[in-house]
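User: For my dataset I need records formatted as: sequence, then structure tokens, nothing else. Please produce one.
Assistant:
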Amino acid sequence: MPSQTLKYVIKVEVMGVTGRLLVSFVALLFLFPLPYLYAADSSPFDEYWTVMAFNKGGPMMWPILFCSIVSFGIIIERLFQLRRSKIIHPGFLEEVRMLWMERKFGDALEECAKYSDTMSRIVRAGLLRANLGILEIERAVEGAGNHESTVLMTNLRGLGVIANLAPMLGLLGTVAGMIKAFNVISTSGAGNPSLVATGISEALITTAAGLIVGIPTLAAYHFLRGKAEKLIFEMEEMSITFMEEISYALNKKRTNEVKGEISKS
């Protein structure tokens, strides 16, 4: 038991450090390149450099900004919800297993109700149908597991959409900026480079902004998806082991009852 607890603590610490590193990486990718998105005559330490870059990027910067806010919010929310302590409590299964083996079925259900993690809800669904046989227990555990797996993957699809959408919005802004630059050339000629540079600047800023949002979002999507799939796999293994133990206990109970009836007769 101490070794299992130590292993759990180490896993929690590693995942916590990994989560903090991911948030720092995302923030760095979001913020570091921005000072270089505006004109060369502006200082990167200007108090309003973000506003200047945003204004020079044109109207397509608004949906890109919205994507960045939604993406960052989802990343923080998923990092909080996918903590292992909220999915699989270290001592929960051992406590329920002991109560079950002692035939304290009501106490086992009460133990499940004490915890709010995902694994306790799956086990509780199986225990509620313990009197209906092993097939009903398996169906209940499988149904609850599928539901909880869907909950764990919540919002990850949104991250995938943003990872693909943000660069496309940047590309659309690039096209709009180049159209503006060529319109200026067609009406005023190529004698005034500053007018042409305005459209080209808008095109490059929106491209960079779209990539700045899309790259860390894609990295976060794959990291969080892998983390969720790993937790789902662990829950499936634990659920199978738990069902096998319940099946063994039920068979043993049934065998003892049959032996008792035979001895009485």
